[in-house]
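pasting for ref
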Amino acid sequence: MHIHFLTTGGTIDKLYFDAKSEYQIGSPQVMSLLQELELAFQYTIEPMMAKDSLDLTDDDRALIRERVMAAPADHVIITHGTDTMVETARLLSGIPGKTIVLTGAMQPARFHRSDAVFNVGTSVGAVSCLPPGVYICMNGKIFDPRKVRKNRDLGRFEEINDTTT
């Protein structure tokens, strides 16, 4: 199996210098996470952008869709900021023949207590087992993008019944 990773920035790639500093988006952390492991699959990593997801535009999302469609593999994982991950996932629906999983982190990957490694690992398992479609993989669960939201107060994603949001 070959997995193509697209990186867009977000908290998973953020760097903080001190409590009073602005953050910066650093290099894609999925590169260092994967290089440290003995993996039983092949992968490529395509850095696309380094943006907070709140700064993503409709043009950025259209470019993400374009790059997913052109990806050299049928299995795609997108590292993405959590604030607008759902919007991007919904835009990716309907791409035929691809299993697409979006993931990210609530804490930067460089932090000791980050959920990044867990979320990326869970995403690898998900993308290798799920049928073609679009999924969000956060907090140890796989979500349908039409039935999920980020709960900022609790710091996690949760299922919703109302599919109009």
